[in-house]
Write a structure and sequence with these properties.
Structural class: alpha/beta
CATH architecture of the largest domain: 3-Layer(aba) Sandwich
Number of helices: 7
Distance between the termini: 31 Å
CATH topology of the largest domain: Rossmann fold
Largest sheet: 6 strands, mixed
Strand order of the largest sheet: 5-6-7-3-8-9
Helix content: 25-40%
Length: 236
């Protein structure tokens, strides 16, 4: 296991946010955290990244763990070009770095924009740059906090496809926070549904179909979608 959480709980000013969370993150697997606002999903990511400490329970990380993070906002440096925004997260020799950066830009469809600045890009393009930067960083665990929440339906699923492609090539583990059932169904090897106030794991679902082979029109995913929707309505 890369990261294990056992009976993790967290409160703010005496108000419980997470309660008795158990989670095992395996190499090359994608866990999607799905739940209503206020379920503590972002707090759970912060505990995984060790930017916040749990009040109780244990978090165990394997040796050599290296984290990358994609936030809700793109967090690009406005004074740097697309290629510079990707490259600054590693201290590589210029020639080697540029070749790898160009490869990532090609994979996310930004090769023609490598010398553009963030203000010259659309929201979807900026988030593609953020995802490329996270993979270029080279972590074996990628934490993603609702990275597509501000994008329209078409752009979200274009980025889901690009994320799957990048993940297939590099096989890092991903913890992906979302409000969107369809994103979770297309991405997750395991979907954890969190309840509200405090966040508890109300249900665990596993999907064995490879991500590249999934379609929202598949009977299995349609049935899972109905089950998840019922569960989310129950935990609101």
């Amino acid at each position: 296991m890369l990261i294990t959480m056992q009976d993790v709980s967290k409160s703010y000013s005496g108000v419980p946010v997470l309660e008795k969370i158990n989670l095992c993150l395996q190499p090359s697997k994608i866990i999607c955290l799905l739940g209503p606002s206020g379920a503590g999903k972002s707090t759970l990511l912060n505990i995984l990244s060790q930017t916040e400490a749990a009040d109780s329970g244990t978090v165990t990380a394997s040796s050599g763990l290296r984290l990358s993070y994609v936030f809700q906002e793109d967090c690009l440096l406005p004074w740097s070009t697309v290629s510079e925004n990707i490259g600054f997260v590693r201290d590589d020799e210029a020639g080697t770095a540029q070749a790898e950066i160009c490869s990532f830009l090609d994979e996310v469809g930004l090769s023609a924009y490598k010398d553009h600045y963030p203000h010259q890009l659309s929201g979807g393009m900026r988030q593609r740059c953020s995802i490329a930067r996270a993979f270029y960083h080279g972590g074996n665990v990628l934490l993603m906090d609702e990275p597509f929440h501000s994008l329209d339906y078409h752009l979200r699923f274009d980025l889901v496809r690009k994320l799957i492609m990048l993940w297939e090539h590099r096989q890092c583990a991903i913890v992906f926070v979302t409000h969107d059932i369809d994103e979770a169904l297309l991405l997750g090897d395991e979907i954890l549904i969190l309840s509200r106030h405090p966040g508890r794991i109300a249900q665990r679902l596993e999907i064995n179909t490879p991500q590249r082979s999934r379609s929202l029109k598949d009977q299995e995913l349609m049935m899972l979608r109905a089950d998840i929707l019922d569960q989310l309505l129950d935990v609101q």
